[in-house]
Structures are given as structure tokens and as C-alpha cells.
Design a protein that fits this description.
Elements: H1 3-16, E1 23-25, H2 32-38, E2 43-49, E3 52-57, E4 66-71, E5 77-81, E6 95-99, E7 104-109, E8 112-116, H3 118-127, H4 139-148, H5 153-158, H6 168-178, H7 191-211, H8 219-225, E9 248-252, E10 255-259, H9 275-282, E11 285-286, H10 299-304, H11 311-320, H12 334-346
Antiparallel strand pairs: 1-6, 2-3, 3-4, 4-8, 5-7, 6-7, 9-10, 9-11
Length: about 350
């Protein structure tokens, strides 16, 4: 869950949960003690910093505050329901809140749910960097830390002690829009380019907060580029919509980076061609699109690039069109199903990729 999604959860909690007292239970038992402590306590405040949520019970600040820290991980969820009893908790539900007085309940599943006092919040806050969605974010303070870093810009964007709330999809899109190569060392980046990185970080996360989706292509340009570049420029794209060059991918710290090396050239300098970076870039490969569960695609993109569909969906398309190729088994590999769907869509004239 990237930063914009976390801030949306916080905004919803402020509207529907803050100011209320709840019966708190831990359906799967993994937050039993914490639920016991906050049971019956009023939720006074909710704060979001990067990918971290903080719920303040009993007091909004001070020594008597019970602070619940939440980090969703890749697929956590905090859902609010305005009818009781609400849905059944699942195997991963760590906390259930219920207010019969207000007819509301909430279910939380997350990678991290921990309870402490105000010092828990203070300690976590001190370790987190500048959040592009917060009013108190300070680009100048981040610039000072940025210029001292020996990391690449691609690593820095994923460092929550620097850019709090930016995840892998936003990293790819922010760097593309700023024209910065992921392997460019922080120390080499001029202030003007850093300002572009920060500006796009703010604009894109704000857009995500408003829309609830990771939409990084500017609306006017989306009309010009067309599918499949109506939502994202390089993340999970085969080629760059602006220049047509292949999108390259490689790993930095076990996470995939996406780059158009024409639109995002690596500027050479004394520090920009370290041995490890050179090895990574040399091993870059042309990106092959996949099914992304983190960033939904438009129907037009899925029609144009069936490799972004699941195997089940590919089979469904072939079945519904009565176009199952003779000799193609139900157990066929995904590549064979993709080719069949392409053939169906193009009348057998499958375009080169």
C-alpha cells in the first residue's frame, strides 16, 4: 500500500471513527493485548506519515495516550462498515472495532499492528523522512539529506527515511517524469533536477489521494499517447509512449526498476559509473508486461496487451468468443493463450512485439 492509499485510510478514519468509543477485539488473536487496552477508549486522533498510520486512543497527545501503529505491507486493509454486525472477520483480521451507539464497525488486517505510548509515535516519526502529502514536508531539509547520501536516486526514492510514502510504482513514474535515471547518484543531481523529482512526488501522490488510483500520465498527454499509456508511462510498459524505445528493467536492492534510457539518460560523472551500477545496467532487459495486482489497467490497455490479463481471464475471452483454437489444450501455457487472444483480435495477423 503506497502513501496515497494510507492517507486515504486516515482521512476516512477522521470522518467516521475519530471521537467515538469502540468495543475492540482481535479476531485472529494477533493483537489481543492491544485490543484489550484500547477497548472502550475514545479514538482521539489519526495521523499518517508515509506508509505508516498512527491511531491515538484516550488522548491525542501526552503520557496517557495509547498509540496504535499500523503498517499495511503489500496488501493490508482497514475497512469501515455502517451496518452491524458487518462482514465476518477473515483469517488475517487483527482488530475489529464496533460501536453499537453509532452503528459502525471496522476491520483491520495489516503486516504490522503494535501498541505503545506516545514515545512509540515519537520514535517512529523521527526515523521517517519527508512525506509529499503532508503540509509539514520540508523539501530543503530533504535536499540536505539527499546531497549527503551515497545512494542512487532510485534507492533514495524508496528510502522511507528520505521520501516517506513513495513505493515502487511511483518511483518509476516520478523518475520518468523528472527525466532522471534510477542509477544516477544523489550527489550528482543538481538542485533543479531534485526539485523536479520532489514536485512530481507531490503532484502524483496528491492525484492518487484524490482519485484513489495510481494515475501518473497527465490527462492531456493521455489523449495524445493513447493506449496503453493512458495511466502510466513506464511501469509495466513494453515501450515508452513518447519515444518508442524499449522500457528496460533491472533490480536494485531486490526491487525492479523501470526506465526509458532515452528519456532518462544516465549523466556520466566521477561517481555515476560505479562497478555495481554498471553491472546492473549491463544486465538490463527489455520489459515483458505482466499481471499487476497493484495498478489496475484500463480496458483498452488490456485489450491491446493481453499479457496483462490473468490465465483465467484469457480462457474466459476465448470461451466467450467461441474462438478456442483447435489443438490448444486447456492446460496451455500463458504465452500460448496470449498468442491465441492476439490472433483472435487481429484475425490471425499477430503484430510483432
Amino acid at each position: 500500500v503506497e502513501g496515497h492509499g494510507v492517507h486515504r485510510v486516515a482521512a476516512s478514519a477522521r470522518r467516521h471513527l475519530v471521537g467515538k468509543r469502540f468495543t475492540a477485539t482481535s479476531p485472529n488473536g494477533r493483537f489481543a493485548h492491544g485490543a484489550e487496552v484500547i477497548d472502550g477508549k475514545e479514538l482521539k486522533r489519526v495521523d499518517a506519515i508515509g506508509k505508516n498510520l498512527f491511531y491515538f486512543f484516550n488522548e491525542a497527545d501526552g503520557p496517557d495516550a495509547h498509540v496504535m501503529h499500523v503498517h499495511f505491507g503489500m496488501s493490508g486493509r482497514f475497512s469501515t462498515h455502517h451496518t452491524l454486525p458487518g462482514p465476518e472477520p477473515g483469517a488475517t483480521t487483527r482488530l475489529r472495532l464496533e460501536s453499537r451507539e453509532h452503528g459502525i464497525c471496522a476491520l483491520l488486517s495489516a503486516m504490522t499492528v503494535e501498541l505503545g505510548d506516545i514515545s512509540l509515535f515519537q520514535t517512529k516519526r523521527a526515523k521517517l523522512g519527508e512525506d509529499p502529502l503532508r503540509e509539514d514536508a520540508d523539501a530543503d531539509r530533504l535536499w540536505e539529506k539527499f546531497t549527503r547520501s551515497r545512494k542512487s536516486v532510485g534507492l533514495a526514492l524508496m528510502d522511507q527515511a528520505m521520501f516517506a510514502g513513495v513505493g515502487n510504482i511511483y518511483r518509476a513514474e516520478i523518475l520518468y517524469k523528472a527525466g532522471v535515471h534510477p542509477e544516477q547518484p544523489c550527489a550528482d543531481l543538481p538542485r533543479s533536477s531534485f526539485d523536479e523529482v520532489w514536485r512530481h512526488s507531490v503532484e502524483l501522490l496528491q492525484r492518487g489521494f484524490v482519485t484513489g488510483s495510481i494515475l501518473t500520465v497527465d490527462p492531456d498527454e493521455a489523449k495524445t499517447l493513447g493506449e496503453p499509456w493512458t495511466r502510466r508511462y513506464v511501469y509495466n510498459q513494453r515501450s515508452c509512449g513518447r519515444c518508442g524505445s524499449a522500457v528496460k528493467t533491472w533490480d536494485i536492492a531486490a526491487r525492479t526498476v523501470y526506465c526509458c534510457e532515452v528519456c532518462q539518460p544516465l549523466v556520466k560523472s566521477e561517481t555515476s559509473n560505479g562497478a555495481s551500477a554498471a553491472v546492473r545496467i549491463k544486465g538490463a532487459r527489455d520489459h515483458v508486461p505482466f499481471v499487476s495486482h497493484c495498478a489496475a489497467e484500463s480496458p483498452g490497455t488490456l485489450a491491446a496487451e493481453p499479457e496483462k490479463l490473468t490465465v483465467a481471464k484469457l480462457k474466459e475471452i476465448l470461451d466467450s468468443a467461441a474462438a478456442w483454437p483447435e489443438g490448444l489444450k486447456r492446460t496451455a501455457k500463458k504465452a500460448e493463450l496470449v498468442a491465441a487472444v492476439r490472433d483472435m483480435a487481429t484475425g490471425g495477423d499477430t503484430p510483432a512485439t
